[in-house]
Specification:
Belongs to the LysR transcriptional regulatory family. The chain has 287 residues and is an alpha/beta fold. It is built from 11 helices and 12 strands. The radius of gyration is 23 Å and the shape is elongated.
Length: 287
């Protein structure tokens, strides 16, 4: 069993195709097919199941992938530990919730690119449970989420405090107290969003009934509020950065305490220079 075989196996698992894996690894498909067949013979198990023109992992392949991810991560960490004085380079796979990607991260990403031009950032946005799952499965090196992690394999550091505000169309009557929200409609991210949970807990504690429409896009939420379709609760940084103040009014309530956003990583990855440089820069810039 060779590391090159394991990298081929992981690439096929990630891309679902030998042809696409060959393009990614810059080798011919027949070479990959031969190497994977030899790996399966050594293990005595089929690692893939054909599905149309592509491949999917077999049950044994899924188990093997978990171990392969850990082996490759540790191999990369071992190599990097021998290069401690070298500027961070290579691929840095970063994820973030959409609100952070829209408001807080753009300036940080620009500063990081300027300071570490040899690092290639692969960036994605998603809901926080998905991002944490990707970190746990080594498909992301780090992520920014708005929920404090509890998984034992997740390391984390508080990144910033995100104040929350209520927003309403400029045509809506002035909101003077929480009771003015009774019976109103809100646009919020689907269940599981930490910001939505705060809104629901707050209004429930005051016995104020509200109606929530699920909407998994901050841009769509802002558009609906701007058009007069309803209200929302959003991070203040999004309001400050994107909203035309003439179209939307905002309201702050003491009970809506700021939400800590966290930078997370997999504890099984002992060293990742780009990840560590990113966190250090974020702390220096105080985003």
């Amino acid at each position: 069993m060779e590391l090159s075989q394991l990298r081929m196996f992981k690439t096929i698992a990630d891309l679902g195709s030998i042809a696409r894996a060959a393009e990614e690894l810059h080798c011919v498909p027949s070479n990959i097919t031969t190497r994977i067949r030899k790996l399966e013979e050594e293990l005595g198990q089929d690692l893939f199941v054909r599905q149309g023109r592509g491949l999917r992992l077999s049950q044994n392949g899924q188990v093997f992938l978990e171990h392969v991810n850990k082996i490759l991560i540790q191999c990369d960490a071992a190599k990097q530990s021998m290069q401690q004085d070298i500027h961070p380079t290579g691929l840095f796979k970063l994820g973030a919730i959409e609100s952070s990607a829209m408001s807080r991260l753009p300036s940080l990403l620009a500063a990081f690119h300027q300071e570490y031009p040899d690092v290639q950032i692969q960036f994605q946005t998603d809901r926080w449970p998905v991002l944490q799952h990707e970190v746990l499965n080594f498909r992301l090196d780090a992520a920014v989420i708005a929920a404090k992690p509890t998984h034992p394999n997740i390391g984390f550091a508080a990144l910033y405090q995100e104040p929350l505000i209520l927003i309403a169309p400029a045509t809506h009557p002035i909101i003077q107290s929480p009771q003015d929200l009774a019976g109103l409609g809100f646009f919020m991210w689907p269940a599981g969003c930490p910001y939505r949970q705060i809104l629901e807990s707050w209004t429930k504690s005051l016995d104020i009934p509200i109606h929530i429409t699920d909407m998994a896009s901050n841009g769509a939420i802002l558009g609906c509020v701007s058009a007069g379709a309803g209200l929302a609760m959003v991070p203040k940084s999004i309001f400050d950065r994107f909203i035309q103040k003439s179209e939307i009014h905002h309201y702050q309530f003491d009970a809506l305490t700021p939400v800590t956003n966290y930078f997370i990583w997999n504890k099984n990855v002992t060293k990742h220079p780009a990840k560590e440089a990113f966190l250090s820069l974020a702390n220096r810039l105080n985003i």
